[in-house]
Design a protein that fits this description.
- The complex is a heterodimer of chains A (214) and B (456).
- Chain A is mainly α and 214 residues long.
- Chain A is built from 7 helices and no strands.
- Chain A has helices spanning 3-22, 27-51, 55-78, 96-118, 129-143, 147-168, 174-201.
- In chain A, helix 1 packs parallel to helix 5 (129-143).
- Chain B has 456 residues and is mainly α.
- Chain B is built from 19 helices and no strands.
- The chains are: A mainly alpha (214), B mainly alpha (456).
- At the A-B interface, helix 5, helix 6 and helix 7 of A face helix 5, helix 6, helix 8 and helix 9 of B.
């Protein structure tokens, strides 16, 4: 398979999985789907690294699979202090049907952005994928209120950057990639602590946050 | 190399040693670490610039290192007297000092490293180390503010990570010295710097992704608000300055100028409607960051003015947040209407608050006045009189909004009894205000230090 075919397949499945996340309301399913999407990216990295005989890319793939595909989803799911079926989005900012529609439109927007502004610097056939994925992650953050799902939205954005930095623009120094992964892990651990306290104290009504207005 | 790393080493050692048990050990260790960092940063002013290795220390880095270290020192000293007022803290005192020292280390790391990728890593690490500090008060709103901080700032920083990748694509390196030497051009560079301004702007409180800032500054404990406002935002602004240095122009200046004015404008109008004094100071920070962005967009003498504001603001704003901690510890309210008669009930705090508010709103003889004048004069000299007048109007609105409220808090009548804080709690903010005023005397020296950065 050529690199473009790998990227094409990867992109197709990653976008499908992210669309699937958009209409899920249960945190465990969202986290599991995110894990599958990250493992897919990790597998693609390992394949490309082996094909091009680049041990650092294989290492990055392994790191991605371990941290984004296994450790982070585990930390999120393991943090739920209620039964899995109760950990869900109860009052989304944007209704599920609308967010699916928006999600599809954002894939098109990502493609349009790429076609009209970025083909000059990203001359690969599937160069729009990171941007479509980035927009999907942003939508997850703004369309949901549940902190766990918002965190996964952020992680989807990070996966988009990983795609851009490793497959579309290969060659970013490993020290930077490792720094990014460590920071990501740090953010997830800190977010996990805050979410634990938040879920325990914060009511869904939000009336107590009058002092955070204005 | 080791001499240039003294501030970083001191803060990292402070973080690691703070965890060890012992009566007042964490406070003593943190104070010694902060003092060493400040002395080490001051020493760097007399050493030549450093580049070519893992560190890149020029005049701008030296100014940042000294500002961070001095605000670090004042924050540690103030925290010693303040933490007892937190009723139900999220963690033990030594965890607070561990996080504070680690947070300072990440900021010092960011302004010292020679690689733009590591600058991003450093700025993201400031979020990791500081998020829990925001929630120290351990109540619902503090935890919510902390969450908003993590999610909004992290999402914004993803944009600056994309920017970093574009820059790498444009130049095949992220080494600052190499980027400055090769002067890359093209679409990838232009996109990289534009996205970088938006992404780092999220952390610097630049419009439109500044919504986290009033929440965090309003709800974090006062020493944390002080160090956030005084130096964390300028650290993100440092990254933007580096992007300006690398890119030259390429449409960046007009873009940043618009964002600067939007930040200044929104902050001025929100200040005019504010009823909470901590949020008032938070919007004042957005206003000052807006002026800094305008200054570096205009370039030349205005860019020096921006750095002067950055330094003077670090001292004045940290002082104001310390003083707001004094007021909150006694009046138990952050509402402006809930605080009356500071002049008679807390005279040292009251008068310092009055002079501090003059300092941050650009009144003479404070450093921000000099910086504002340099920026407005540069706008006039470039035949951008309309923009200069707009800036003056917005600065005027901010001046009236802040000072009218502070005057009401300080000089209103009250027959309550005296309840002033102790000596350290009032002396530290006062020294910071004096340093903010002293900045005006250092304008030529600041100009000399940054002349290479802004091509003067």
């Amino acid at each position: 398979m050529t690199l473009d075919t790998v990227l094409g397949l990867l992109g197709f499945f990653t976008i499908v999985l992210t669309l699937f996340i958009q209409w899920q309301i249960y945190v465990t399913r969202v986290a599991t789907t995110f894990a599958a999407s990250s493992l897919l990216i990790a597998a693609a990295l390992v394949y490309v690294g082996a094909r091009e005989s680049e041990p650092l890319v294989i290492l990055l793939g392994a790191l991605t699979g371990a941290v984004r595909g296994i450790l982070i989803p585990f930390l999120v799911v393991n943090n739920l202090h209620v039964r899995a079926w109760r950990a869900r989005e109860q009052r989304p900012v944007i209704k599920t049907a609308t967010s699916i529609l928006l999600s599809l439109l954002l894939v098109l927007a990502g493609y349009g952005l790429y076609r009209f502004a970025l083909t000059e610097i990203i001359p690969t056939a599937n160069g729009f994928l990171p941007f479509a994925l980035f927009l999907q992650g942003s939508l997850l953050i703004v369309s949901k209120r549940n902190a766990f799902i918002q965190l996964i939205g952020y992680l989807v954005m990070e996966n988009a950057v990983l795609l851009l930095g490793s497959l579309v623009f290969p060659g970013l120094p490993l020290v930077i990639e490792a720094g990014v992964v460590l920071d990501l892990l740090g953010i997830v651990i800190v977010a996990r602590i805050i979410m634990q306290m938040r879920e325990a104290t914060v009511e869904e009504s939000g009336e107590q946050f009058e002092t955070l207005k204005g | 190399m080791v001499t240039y790393s003294i501030p970083m080493i001191a803060s990292l050692a402070g973080a690691l040693l703070s965890i060890m048990p012992g009566l007042y050990f964490e406070e003593v260790v943190s104070a010694v670490a902060a003092l060493t960092a400040a002395a080490g940063s001051a020493l760097l002013l007399f050493l030549p610039d450093l580049s070519g290795g893992a560190l890149y220390i020029d005049g701008l880095s030296k100014i940042m290192l000294l500002s961070i270290s001095l605000v670090y020192l004042s924050t540690v000293l103030y925290s010693v007297t303040f933490l007892k007022y937190i009723n139900n803290p999220l963690f033990q005192k030594r965890t607070f000092y561990f996080l504070l020292n680690a947070f300072v280390f990440t900021m010092l790391f960011t302004v010292s490293v020679a690689n733009l990728g590591l600058v991003w890593v450093g700025i993201e690490a400031t979020t990791v180390t500081s998020a829990l500090l925001v929630a120290t008060d351990n109540d619902e709103t503090a935890i919510e503010a902390s969450w908003r901080y993590v999610i909004i700032v992290s999402a914004g920083l993803v944009i600056s990570l994309i920017a970093t990748i574009f820059l790498y694509k444009a130049a095949d390196t992220l080494d600052i010295a190499a980027l400055l030497g090769s002067r890359p051009a093209g679409l990838a560079l232009r996109l990289g710097v534009l996205l970088g301004v938006v992404g780092y702007g999220t952390k610097a409180g630049v419009f439109p992704m500044n919504t986290w800032l009033p929440d965090v500054h309003g709800k974090a404990p006062s020493p944390v608000s002080a160090i956030f406002s005084g130096v964390l935002l300028p650290v993100a602004m440092y990254a933007i300055m580096r992007l300006f240095q690398i890119a030259g122009d390429g449409g960046l200046r007009s873009f940043a100028l618009v964002l600067g004015f939007l930040s200044l404008g929104t902050a001025a109008f929100f200040m005019a409607a504010q009823r909470d004094y901590k949020r008032l100071f938070a919007y004042s920070t957005i206003e000052n960051m807006g002026m800094i962005l305008i200054g570096i967009s205009v370039g030349g003498a205005a860019a020096v003015g921006a750095v002067v504001i950055l330094v003077a603001h670090a001292f004045a704003k940290s002082s104001l947040f310390f003083l707001s901690g004094n007021v909150l510890s006694r009046y138990k309210s952050t509402q402006i209407d809930g605080v009356q008669g500071l002049r008679t009930r807390m005279p040292r705090t009251g008068y310092s608050l009055f002079f501090g508010s003059l300092a941050i709103t650009g009144a003479p003889p404070f450093g921000i006045f000099a910086g504002d004048i340099m920026i407005v004069a540069a706008l006039f000299s470039r035949h951008q009189g309309v923009l200069a007048i707009l800036a003056l109007l917005l600065l005027g609105l901010a001046f009236v909004a802040v000072n009218s409220r502070i005057v009401r808090m300080v000089f209103s009548a009250s027959d309550g009894e005296k309840m002033e804080r102790g000596l350290v709690g009032t002396l530290v903010p006062l020294i910071c205000i004096v340093l903010s005023a002293a900045t005006i005397l250092l304008v030529p020296e600041i100009g000399a230090l940054v002349q290479g950065v802004f091509g003067l």
